[in-house]
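Researcher: For the record, we're logging two predictions in this thread. I'll number them. Prediction 1 follows.
Model: Prediction 1, sequence and structure:
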Amino acid sequence: MTVVWAHLGLSKELKHLHPTVHAYIIDNLFSRHQNLYADISWDVLSKQLLMNFNGANVSLLHHDVHEDLNGEIKESVVDTEEVEEMREELEETWDIHEDMMESRGSVSGPTHAMAIYLELFHAHADRFLTGTDFVSSLGPPDEFPGLVNGKGCMKDKKNHARQVTDTGSINMFLNDEAFQKIVLGGNYFKINRLEDTFAPPPVCGDSLLPMEALIGIGVGAGVLLIIIIVVLVVLCCCRKKDKVSFVRVDGPGSATTRV
């Protein structure tokens, strides 16, 4: 039986669980249960844990000040300086996409927790699924008041698009292998036993080409280089021949040729 653990096993009540402790738990469960997967489709994961950076100091995750470390992982150590460096690297990627993300979503950038969980996503790239648990719908205000009184259900197309943007915001940090398996469907095909029929497309800019294609590219480049060299040699020879002789006319009826 295949088990997909919803929302990384978190809830709004458990969102303050130390990410190192949580990653440790998931890592151990994955090692013990080969049929266990986890989904990261909940927008709350992004908006309240992974992509809601507000300038918080990384020292809040230090093992000396967080009760989860003593309670769950004895004598554990969290290198907060390394975590800060990892988050700053993610920030560089975020800066590239920030304008687009802020115009379509409601997240504010990668947190220190995102840096810690990213290592888990890469270590177990074949065990995570993505998507959204947000169902788009619209009802009359009287029957479905929604989250804003008097305006009906908020689950319309616009909000659905925002939810997908928020949920997918973490995808920009995944390496090629994790992106292909988690985002492009590799793991979906696997758990549905379709990997022999379907495969995720290659990642843009990916160098994972078949050996035959690499050989073909090499041979083609070599032939093109030879052609260019031959053309250059021919042009040089022709220019030398043009400079061998010339004809000068001194006046009517006479001509002199010099070599």
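Researcher: Logged. Prediction 2.
Model: Prediction 2, sequence and structure:
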Amino acid sequence: MAATIQPDPPQGGFSFDNVNRNEIFAQKGIKCSKARKTGTTIAGIAFKDGIILGADTRASEGTFIADKNCSKIHYISPNMYCCGAGTAADTEYVTRLISSKIELHSLNTERKPRVVAALTMLKQMLFRYQGHVGAYLVLGGVDSTGPHLYTVHAHGSSDKLPYVTMGSGSLAAMAVFEDRYNFNMELDEAKQLVRDAIAAGIFNDLGSGSNVDLCVIMKDGTDYIRPFDEANKKGVRQGKYRYKRGTTAVLEEKQLTLADVDVSTHVEAMDTS
């Protein structure tokens, strides 16, 4: 009977197996993939009557603006919403999956879901993927124990704070919160504070822009205001930019026949590095 060879059990700690491989790639001129910068400003505050979440509406793809009016505040349950920063597809489908799980949990227990239940599901799922699912979330909601506000990072870590910001415009938004936040604010004052924090991210960060969306979560219901404010209004064109034929002088003119034009095709291999 042939003896079976058992593989060595995986060792803990960091793995540097690909260091030599990456150096060989670099010597051959093959570029390693780089992380793509994403841009967003999302924020949330807890105040005496509930939770207010805010987000901008610009979706960027590298240096291009892919969508001027995307929704970054995602539904979890009637008493919970979640702002997403990072990879748009990851944030959308992670929140959809957790929303489905929360609904099943609520039907099983026959109770209104708690915010900490959604937090635990998000943390456990993101930790399993070790940061490869690029979802950076601000989770807010009101349940039987009161208002709760959390941040969840892509690796699965979380924080519970009275006011939070995330995304590339988070520093500008946090400056507004640290200057003016007060837990005992009235509703209108709290909405204006979150609006000003998101607007600070819009005007001070190139990855954030367009409008300001707000979601107000209170015991008696949720109000999703989209848009709450148009921070970047499109200006009106002042002049006319059509010119009559002949305005620009023609310096040289040359006519070519079809025989003079090279119509041969050349196919190059696609760069997959």
